[in-house]
Specification:
Strands 1-7-6-5-4-3-2 form a 7-stranded antiparallel sheet, with helices on one face. It is an alpha+beta fold. It has one domain: Alpha-D-Glucose-1,6-Bisphosphate, Chain A, domain 4. It has 4 helices and 7 strands. The termini are far apart. Pfam families: Polyketide_cyc2.
């Protein structure tokens, strides 16, 4: 398997501003509303991300908690995080969102799951099962929410 097979991506244009869309992504309490993997249960309010190095927590549908370290951040344009078990080093899989305004209150949004550096063998089956369709489902739900708010 090549490293390119370890990167899954999907994109779409959303009829909403990059700022509106980014608020739904950068606020972990909003993420379960648009999660196309149906993997996220809840996150405490007040964790809105604003810089690299910040960490937010998320409870998964199975009840376990993840710490998510922000490793890329540009307000309104890009955010990426590495999840891990609480107090542990991230095992190496990354979730990234990139937003590019395309005019007229529309935004091209790209969602990427990159497990090139994943070292935890227990997570490999789940990583392989994350498809572009899963990412597209998140984009579709995100679009619905962002477009409703407009």
């Amino acid at each position: 398997m090549t490293s390119q097979q370890h990167v899954v991506s999907s994109d779409r244009e959303i009829a909403a501003s990059a700022e509106r869309i980014f608020e739904l992504i950068a606020d972990p309490a909003q993420q379960p509303r648009w999660d196309g993997n149906d993997n996220l249960r809840e996150a405490p309010a007040g964790q809105r991300m604003r810089a690299t190095g910040e960490v937010f927590t998320m409870t998964l549908t199975r009840g376990s908690v993840r710490e998510n370290r922000i490793v890329e951040f540009e307000e309104g344009r890009r955010i990426a995080w590495l999840p891990s078990e609480p107090g542990q080093q991230p095992p190496g899989h990354l979730w990234r969102w990139e937003l590019e305004p395309v005019g007229d209150g529309r935004t091209q949004v790209t969602h990427t799951y990159d497990w090139t550096n994943l070292t935890d063998e227990k997570r490999l089956d789940r990583a392989r099962a994350t498809t572009a369709e899963n990412l597209s489902a998140s984009l579709d739900r995100l679009a619905e929410l962002a477009e409703q708010q407009g």
